[in-house]
Write a structure and sequence with these properties.
By secondary structure, this protein is of the alpha/beta class. The relative contact order is 0.12. Helices cover about 50% and strands about 10% of the residues. A six-stranded parallel sheet has the order 3-2-6-7-1-8, with helices on both faces. It has a six-stranded parallel sheet with strand order 11-16-15-12-14-13, covered by helices on one side. The protein binds a DNA duplex (15 and 10 nucleotides) through helix 5, helix 10 and helix 19.
Amino acid sequence: MDLTKLLNASQLEVVNTFDGPILVIAGAGSGKTRVIEYRVLNMILNKIVPQSILLLTFTRRASREMLSRAAGHDVRCNHVEGGTFHSFAYKLLKKHSRLIGFESFSILDEDDSQEAVGLCAKNAGFTTKDKRFPKKDTMRKIISMSVNKNMEIPELLERDYENFADFAREIERVKNDYARFKLEKLYFDYDDMLVYLRLLLAKNPALRAELSEKYRYIMVDEYQDTNKLQAEITFLLGEKHGNVMAVGDDAQSIYGFRGASHANILDFPKRFANCRVIKLENNYRSHQKILDVANAVLVNMKHKFSKTLISARDDEGDKPALMFFRNSDEESRWVAQKVMDTRDDGVDLRKQAILFRSSFISIPLQMELSRRNIPFQVYGGMKFYETGHVKDILAYLKVIFNPRDEISWARLLQLIEGIGPKTSERVIRAVASFHTLDDVLAELGKEEKERKYGPHLERLAHMLEKAAGQDSCRKQFEEALTYYTPIFKQKFDDWPQREADLAALKQMSGNYNSLRDFLADFTIEPPERGTAGVDPATADEEQQLTLSTIHSAKGLEWDTVYLIGLADGVLPVSFALNSEDSIEEEQRLFYVAVTRAKRRLFLSLYHEGNGFGLSQFNRPSRFVESRDVLNTLETDVCMDGRRIDYDDIDIDL
DNA sequence: TTTCGACGTCTTTTT
DNA sequence: GACGTCGAAA
């Protein structure tokens, strides 16, 4: 294969350099995915063992994409190790957690973690009755942030949560209690996966050396969105051989809210001596008129980027248009119509995407698309694994796996009629000292036999016992499902719509050998597809329009992109407005969205907002109102002050 | 002690 | 427009 025909000089340099640290600064659309694809391939063609290559990416989707493309040229590429930091951490911890004192562990998803934090706060006597005390949700965020940024609580509060600065001591207390609680119950939350992997590597030189030896070549994608812990893990794994490549773009850092720090990019050359820095600047994705918008977005940022995107394409294309609508229904109708027109122009649905800042913005549009029978897939937003019924059924499986899982016990006990918080707490306390399911079940049987929910408890115990005895994940799931179904139908009025999720789940359970892996995978690498709004029967996999949050659209591209809801308060989102840093993150988000488009880009907003049930007048996003940006857009269709001539717009009313 | 209904609060992005 | 909280009734 002649790589020189496929790649430009700097891309080639990356692809041909195997040894030593490299930092690749890859601007939007500069062929980053391609470079990773061919670098993996090139390594393998040069006799590097696939299993010695580790590719850490931001989502499983990304690693799968790059590896399967590479495997298209040479199937051995399928044996490259790839995945997210979290999934990689899980894999290692599953094997080696003993070394840091854990025989086993179960994983807390964000919701469970929130419950646990709430429990700790309650037990410590910090109730939310005092209005100013942070709610469990906020508290979880604060604690998590302090872990990910390796920052002390007071310092963090000072910076990001000034209004809670007075509660530093209390929050610190909750943080410690929560940590102890997790140790007792053998819970690992998302952050712990990284914390413990780091610990594992730091405390066990032998293991660290072994892993360094195993993974001779490490690549980390989206490095601008890694946090401090992830950077340290990268360092611990790669220090010995130094064959580490980080790829990123500081202008696209959009995960600050999760503790990511684009400073990691700047630090990379400091941590790895003799690091080569290679910039990929040509943009192969979009034509210049789209890039003009992107460049203009970056111009007035305080945190400067030296980058100016230059298109390497020769087609000129149209100036991106900015559309104004009266309300979301009009926007939806216009977009839906435009999608159809564009398809008639030969751009099929797969090549079009509608992007938005927050999922709820897309609901009117989803309804309009359904009405017109336009098939679509939604990425981002509420996942089906976050819905009540899915969490209910998983709770049964979780206690079978970990009888100490108090959070799940509480959930499933309260599904029984007549059992509320108090009773469930009492039952749990009676059961808390036991470590095996058998003991717990025996205790459950004794518990409250004479009361009205006694028989229910017995039935529950019976089901759990039977399920625990099953030898396959699938059968265990079925036991739980049989037990849960009547409760489910009673609990949810709209159960027929939810039933499909349970069926899908049952299906998935068949793919796993152990409950443990099923549950872990579900938490760490959950299926990303929402099922809402799509009729699975008519959905043609190959021909679906994409609806996605901007966050979930990272790294992807489409021929035609519609960026909707460009009102101030939506993008930038209203609660980002109190800090300069978060406004800039919103601005980068806008930049990411714009640079997803290859040939056509439409921006739109509507004026009638509905916050808090009251209507309000939305101003255009401050990002498009700036002169620099406005000049790069086509705004003739309708502009501030001027009346919109709706007859000119092809709306099918 | 549970459950239900009214009322007030805050509304995001994801592993 | 959902979710949590609080008070009242069962």
